[in-house]
Amino acid sequence: MSLSVIFRQHIALRQKSTEQALRECRFDALVIGAGELQYYAEDDAAVSHRSYHHFNHWCPLSGENHLLVIRPGQKPELCAYIPDDYWHEHADLEDAFWLAEFNITSFGNVEALWQHIAKVRDGIYIGPDKARAEAAGLKTDAANLLPRLNWERSFKSEYEVKCVERATRRAATGHVAAREAFFAGGSELDIHHAYMRAIRQIDRQLPYETIVCLNEKAAVLHYHKKRDKTRLGKTFLLDAGVRYKGYACDITRSYAADAAPAEFRNLLGGMNKLQQNLCGLIKPGLSFEHLHAQAHLDIAALLLDHGVLRSVSKEQAVERGLSQVFFPHGLGHMLGIHVHDVAGKQVDRTGTLPTPQAKHKTLRASRILDAGNLLTVEPGVYFIDMLLKPQRSGEHAACFNWPLIDTLMPCGGIRIEDNVLVTRSGQRNITRAFLP
Q1: Average pLDDT over residues 338-350
Q2: What would the pLDDT profile of 257-294 be if each residue is shown by its tens digit?
Q3: CA dihedral in degrees (193, 199, 204, 209; nearest 10)?
């Protein structure tokens, strides 16, 4: 089915759910802003613009200052900012697959655009430009409305899934090229460039900066330096995605060269099986918090099986916080327009939040899963000195195999991450369809 057809269905869903939210919150119209350009302090260089996420949920048009007006029973109105400008290139509206779903009016300057918006009565504005919206007579307190819109965002339409699939297909080519560059002995910078060449994009188009780690740097969860002198790595971790029409994929893979310790290579093989088992448990009605707890049990068992931990059961290892030393982050998060997408902790569409669990404070998602949710599953095992150091003289020091840990420390760590769609009957692993 073509993008234009499934985008029409997507807009119909957005119109229906937004009309319901407006009725519940007693607003007559919704105005969504793409946001103005932002500039670096005391500089005329602009920060790379990324449209407000709820604008992107409706419209894939890139660029600043655009506005959408959604009224019940009416076709959405797109107020497009397309100035006469020979300094910069602006949006081209001639041949986009989504054009037919909007009534479009073009504006050559920002003031005229906002004067037009001032005609909207009893409207609520969401977006970055609240001062302009208030000056135009719009309400900007959307505390009741935003949770409803965020909740609807967490159920992906066929169009949204297709965008993530297309992002994943391109990212997979980058991951394959990066893997080849690693096994050829490339530096972190070499590997980054191999990834970028393969996906045919530039850095500012990425959903997030690539994480390219050789050896011990895999123990830095968000490592962004690209070393050029470190080559012939023994271990490699790549966390990199692609954005398509505003939608992101988020993929991590870990590898070990033949020169890596055998214990690490065995641990990597076990982690891959563990991660796939966790993905296979996903289904409607499952608590993601429960899946996170299961991940800790599985990781504790993996560490015991490979001799990293000893003299405890897996349950004791979790209860005593020993698994947390090696797996200090949450199992995953919602995915979509934001890499860490909205509504991950909402209990319902009105924004109710669950009672925080102290032992699961690293979780970015804790809700009960339902069909249409899209999330990442990314267990890991890391050898992080600042977390291990206190354990060397702690009450549980005897539970750690320190000679083996010292052997594995230069390897950094392992993370494997897939993007999984919850379906009515279970799940579909979008990542593995393109990157086995």
Answers
A1: 95
A2: 999 999 999 999 999 999 999 999 999 999 999 999 99
A3: -60
- DSSP assignment letter at 101: G
Planar angle of CA 377, 380, 386, nearest 5 degrees: 140
- Nearest 5°: the CA angle 152, 25, 157 is 15
* Residue in 233, 158, 283 with CA at minimum distance from that of residue 410: 233
- pLDDT tops 90 at residue 355: no
pLDDT at 226 over 80: yes
d(CA 401, CA 304): 10
Distance CA 207, CA 296 (A): 28
Residue 242: both structure tokens together? 């692609």
Contact 327, 299 (CB under 8 A): yes
DSSP β-bridge partners for residue 428: 421
Which residues, 6+ apart, have CB-to-CB distance to 435 below 8 Å?
Answer: 168, 171, 172, 175, 176, 251, 253
Under 8 Å between Cβ of 168 and 249? yes
Residues in the chain: 436
Nearest CA among 239, 391, 417, 395 for reference residue 303: 391
Q: How much is the pLDDT for 295?
A: 98
> Quick one: tokens of 258?
């033949």
Region class of 351: left (phi > 0), else alpha (psi between -120 and 50), else beta: left
Alpha carbon distance 227, 205 (integer Å): 22
CA distance 385 to 395: 17
Measured distance between the N- and C-terminal CA atoms of the chain, rounded to whole angstroms: 25
Supply 145's token pair: 């409305």
DSSP character for 322?
H
What percent of the chain is predicted at pLDDT more than 70?
A: 99
List, in order of start, the domains of the chain with CATH numbers.
3-150 (3.40.350.10), 158-434 (3.90.230.10)
With 80 as the cut, is the pLDDT of residue 92 above it?
A: no
Specify the pLDDT at position 357: 64
DSSP 325-363: HH--S-S--B-SSSSS-TTTT-SSTT---PPP-GGGTT-
Lowest mean pLDDT among 11-20, 62-71, 348-357: 348-357
Centroid of chain to Cα 55: 17
**Bridge partners of 239?**
211, 252
366-417 pLDDT, tens digit per residue, is 999 999 999 999 999 999 999 999 999 999 999 999 999 999 999 999 999 9
